[in-house]
Specification:
single chain, 243 residues, 80% helix, ABC_perm_TupB-like, transmembrane, ABC transporter permease, membrane
């Protein structure tokens, strides 16, 4: 039996035995990503809805900056947050560096442009289809944005799932601002990097398998939501054809 097979078998034993260290790292990673995803989605949906319906002179420049931020390397985001939270930084008084809050902050900043851009595109397309009717009823930009958000709520579910997948698989930013401290800021991605460098391949493999399972589950959920929405949209049309 080669090293790869031994590592996989040992990793599976760690997962099936519910190894306490493994569970602690997975739980912390999910808590950080869920918190960051919730904050990023709350802010990103509001900003994206407004950008989808608002008309102002500098909108093309704002959209260019937004699209550029989608390609920001995670380590750059981590560096910026590190400088903000360092003792000499403007937010150093918070004392968040190398803490759970710092990792949430970094992941929120990383995921926020992703959510904002997708929501802006979704609401913008809906505005093209229904915006004129809503404007004729006297709905202002803010109200139109909220109404279109509600109309596209099933698409937003897919965006939330994708945002969480983006957050939970991130490594660079949380490594920089969290410090990968055992028992405090060690999450799945940083633990995989550390355990691999130490030569503890079974633990790294176990964490990798859990991370892959989480990503697979997110993709399955996204596919189910899309299929359910297609079936729901096709329902009235099929009823009309039957009549």
């Amino acid at each position: 039996m080669n090293t790869f097979q031994e590592s996989v078998l040992t990793a599976l034993r760690l997962i099936l035995s519910l190894d306490p260290l493994l569970l602690a790292i997975v739980g912390r990673s999910l808590a950080v990503s869920l918190s960051a995803c919730a904050l990023a989605c709350a802010l990103g949906m509001m900003a994206g809805a407004w950008l989808g319906v608002a008309r102002f002179r500098g909108k093309p420049a704002v959209l260019t900056l937004l699209n550029t931020s989608l390609a920001l390397p995670s380590v750059v985001v981590g560096l910026v947050v590190y400088l903000l939270l360092s003792h000499s930084g403007p937010l150093g008084f918070l004392g968040w560096l190398f803490s759970f809050k710092a990792m949430v902050m970094a992941q929120t900043i990383l995921v926020l442009p992703f959510v904002t851009a997708l929501v802006r595109q979704t609401v913008g397309d809906a505005e093209s289809d229904h915006g004129e009717q809503l404007r004729s009823l006297g709905a202002g930009p803010f109200m139109r944005g909220l109404m279109l958000l509600w109309d596209e709520r099933f698409t937003l579910i897919t965006i939330v799932i994708a945002a969480f997948g983006r957050a939970v698989s991130e490594v660079g930013a949380v490594m920089v601002v969290g410090g990968n401290i055992d028992g405090y800021t060690r999450v799945m991605t940083t633990a995989i990097a550390l355990e691999t460098s130490k030569g503890d391949l079974p633990m790294a493999m176990a964490l990798g398998l859990v991370l892959l399972a989480v990503v697979l589950l997110l993709n399955v959920l996204g596919a189910l939501v899309r299929r359910w929405r297609e079936h729901r949209d096709a329902g009235p049309a099929n009823v009309g054809e039957a009549i």
